[in-house]
Amino acid sequence: MFHKEKSIQIKNSASALYNNLSVLRIAPRRLTYFTVVHANVVNMVSASWDGLNYSHRQLQSKEPNVATSTSLIMQAAFCVLPSRDLLVVSSQKGIQMYESDGSIMVYWHALDTPEAPTEQAVFARGISAVSDNYICVGVSSGAVLVFDVPSKGSNITLSEVLEEHKEAITDIAAECSGSQERLASLVTADDGGNVCVWKSGEEFQLLNKIPGLDITCSSVKLWKGTVLAGYGNGQIRLYEAVTGILHAEVNAHARWIYSLDVAPFSGLLLSAAEDSFVRVWHLAMTPETNSVEIAHLHNECVTDTQICGAKFCDGDGYAFAVTGYDLSEIIRYVQS
Amino acid sequence: MSTRTLPLLFINLGGEMLYILDQRLRAQNIPADKAKKVMNDIITTMFNKKFLEELFKPQELYSKKALRTVFDRLAHASIMRLNQASMDKLYDLMTMAFKYQVLLCLRPKDILLVSFNHMDAIKDFVKDTPSILSQVDETYQQLIEIYTPLSNGEFQLIRQTLLIFFQDMHIRVSIFLKDKVQNSNGRFVLPTSGPVPRGTQIPGLIRIFSCAGEELTRLQFNNGGNYSSAQREGSFEIFGDRVTKLGTNMYSVSRPVETHMSGTSKSSAQHTKVNTVPNPLAKEELNLLSRLMGGLEVQKPGSTDTGFRVNLFATDEEEEEALISRPDDLSYGIVNIQATKDQQANAELAKIMGEFTESGEQSPSASSKGDDLLAMMDGL
């Protein structure tokens, strides 16, 4: 179903972090950007579609002053809004927002870091664009920061802080099916496996809370009103977002899941875990019976690698890319 | 990231160090009484109350350089001496062993079981010496108190922090190569077979539910591996079967342990590393380090009768050759305190050494003690 293509070499190896790969497809320029986090550096590669041109860039987490210890980056993700694309980098010290090519930093938000280290680690993790003008970023305290992003310029402001989660945020996702009539626009997940569903707006509204059982939800997606959640015990679960009804449960992986992605136009689902496997699934919705089904399509094994990032490179799921801990390449697969 | 990583890193690396030294002492036929003294001295130093107090404070992980300095000191806490090449090799073995254990843990919280395996072995080394035994028991209590309440998510953060520390280390260890747990390119073998972690089901089952919660369909898929059900739970208490073998002594069978330097340095240079700063050691880290080192007792270097040298290589020639041929990017760049212009940090170190003497009284010659420490660190 899929076969391996030529890998893209990156300057540093990928760190073992959840959702450690972000992809931005720039059709007008026939380019795709990839970002992979290595400790305190974001490695960006711009790859031309003809496979002939690759250019690299590295972004570092901003240091307020040199003497303090390095700020490790937890996640880097592209945020696509109607009028602009931004690259958001979340670290131990704060949140940086760049133009999507990484050339200029347009916004910096510092986290409240205590004078001396505390038992609770402090960091920002979980990034998503939401609706037309928001970017949400999660924090280790469980708070979700909502930033209001104008169509251009650097006048980005913190519009709201959502305080529902009590444990560190792991991942955040927005409804990606493109349909406007969905009630739920955002889903947030935390270390304890709790998943919250929200409606965006001037004031975000909590629609539902799906409790976890101390099983971390490390990666989450929202598609056609369905929460797709990947867990530390290797399970994938599908919930109806607004009601919390469990549609399906899959014993998908033998180790902690690190990344989930969905191709919105075709309903393909990608899951990747520490067990070295990337799996492709198909989601089918039956609106009449209000049911959602999931079927297994394909496996890829990246030998001797704990996978930390997996993303489709396009909305149909024609190709996907994978990163692994200690691997200095982005592995690509294409449909046969 | 996680501020709780350092104690686990230290205890596990320390445990591996003791396994290796124990094996070398036996391989070199060091007299039993001297060997025992070395092991006891090192363990006493490792579990020194003041040192552990500093260690267990919430803090970020040290750089590789800084941690290496602590272990150099620890290895010299007794009458045993190690040359630079042997110390390098010892540290390579320690770090690759713990990297392997962290990678292969079935669940993040199994790192605690690995730590208990090391602690159990350390306890066995000193079972005949009640004073040291009580120090070790106290440390068990601390570990249980601090780590057993942590959630799975927090343990995964600890594991991710450790993996960043070990990133890009691919030194080949002959015992791992022989056992086929490491490939010839230095990467560890991650099997797609064996027991699944506790709490995880063998992959393969899809269950579809109705809106009312009844199971509508069951489907199976091929998981591509060869998994078996989870083993029983290991003990997280002071005593008990840990179940996992990770962290137990793999050197008990006397096998020469070699590391291979060639072919391990990556062609793409790392432009930036964690904790790399313009000075050899940032001021803040130096302060942290000096507080930590302040708790490490130093034995007076033994006279040539009682002191002896341990070699981690088969012959002296091999040891010398290893020192010369070690690739630059694999050198640990030991902290050279004299080289830092930071007078205040030097003074800090001297002060701490002055506060702490073997007899526990205030030392009148605080500055000379400080000089001893600096001189020793320079000599490493």
TrEMBL record, chain A:
<keyword id="KW-0677">Repeat</keyword>
<feature type="repeat" description="WD">
    <location>
        <begin position="250"/>
        <end position="291"/>
    </location>
</feature>
<dbReference type="GO" id="GO:0060271">
    <property type="term" value="P:cilium assembly"/>
</dbReference>
<protein>
    <submittedName>
        <fullName>WD repeat domain 54</fullName>
    </submittedName>
</protein>
<dbReference type="InterPro" id="IPR036322">
    <property type="entry name" value="WD40_repeat_dom_sf"/>
</dbReference>
<dbReference type="InterPro" id="IPR050505">
    <property type="entry name" value="WDR55/POC1"/>
</dbReference>
<dbReference type="InterPro" id="IPR049546">
    <property type="entry name" value="WDR54_beta_prop"/>
</dbReference>
<dbReference type="InterPro" id="IPR001680">
    <property type="entry name" value="WD40_rpt"/>
</dbReference>
<dbReference type="GO" id="GO:0005814">
    <property type="term" value="C:centriole"/>
</dbReference>
<feature type="domain" description="WD repeat-containing protein 54 beta-propeller">
    <location>
        <begin position="1"/>
        <end position="333"/>
    </location>
</feature>
<dbReference type="InterPro" id="IPR015943">
    <property type="entry name" value="WD40/YVTN_repeat-like_dom_sf"/>
</dbReference>
<keyword id="KW-0853">WD repeat</keyword>
<dbReference type="GO" id="GO:0036064">
    <property type="term" value="C:ciliary basal body"/>
</dbReference>
<dbReference type="Pfam" id="PF21031">
    <property type="entry name" value="WDR54"/>
</dbReference>
From TrEMBL, chain B:
<protein>
    <submittedName>
        <fullName>Organic solute carrier partner 1</fullName>
    </submittedName>
</protein>
<dbReference type="GO" id="GO:0005737">
    <property type="term" value="C:cytoplasm"/>
</dbReference>
<dbReference type="Pfam" id="PF10188">
    <property type="entry name" value="Oscp1"/>
</dbReference>
<dbReference type="InterPro" id="IPR019332">
    <property type="entry name" value="OSCP1"/>
</dbReference>
<dbReference type="GO" id="GO:0005886">
    <property type="term" value="C:plasma membrane"/>
</dbReference>
